[in-house]
Design brief:
The protein contains 6 helices and 4 strands, in the order H-E-E-H-H-H-E-E-H-H. By secondary structure, it is mainly α. The strands form 2 sheets. It has a two-stranded antiparallel sheet. A hairpin with a 6-residue loop joins strand 3 and strand 4. Pfam families: zf-C2HC_2.
Length: 152
């Protein structure tokens, strides 16, 4: 590449540094970095790549079942079900139509499904994962703590 005001040859980056000395207002071409598409797990709410989400969901559901079985009978929850939009998306990922579905809608449905797994505290109303709720409730002061923090 050469400078338009001089007859010197430069590499791309050297030319940009050289142009800065001339007061050039041209910006160097922006390098666009794209994040690979991710799919949210409907059980835990974490994001995974399109190739590994099916493997993760099987393992995550097995872990969920094990943890749910460890809870007292009155605290056990029904097994989470995969939202319909995710079932359709999974078929399209595995089939030849990959990428023809709305990834944002699928992730929103998975997020809502994961959030529905949370359990509200009986004292303050905040929601927690099942393994965290018992620890929270031991220390929760209920609405008094919320009122106190609102005053400060």
């Amino acid at each position: 590449m050469s400078c338009s005001s001089e007859n010197h040859s430069f590499s791309f980056y050297s030319l940009e540094m050289h142009r800065d000395g001339h007061g050039s207002t041209q910006d160097p071409p922006a390098m666009v970095s794209r994040r690979p598409p991710t799919v949210m797990c409907y059980i835990c709410g974490r994001e995974y790549g399109t190739a590994s989400i099916t493997i993760h969901e099987k393992q995550c559901l097995a872990k969920w079942k094990f943890e749910n079985d460890q809870l007292p009978p009155n605290a056990r929850r029904p097994e989470p079900t995969k939202p319909q939009i995710l079932t359709e998306a999974a078929r399209e990922i595995q089939g030849s139509k990959a990428g023809n579905y709305n990834l944002d809608a699928a992730n929103e449905a998975a997020f809502q499904a994961a959030q529905s797994q949370y359990i509200p505290c009986q004292k303050c109303g905040r929601t927690f994962q099942p393994e965290s709720i018992s620890l929270h409730q031991k220390h929760c002061q209920g609405y008094k703590a919320l009122k106190r923090s609102a005053k400060t």
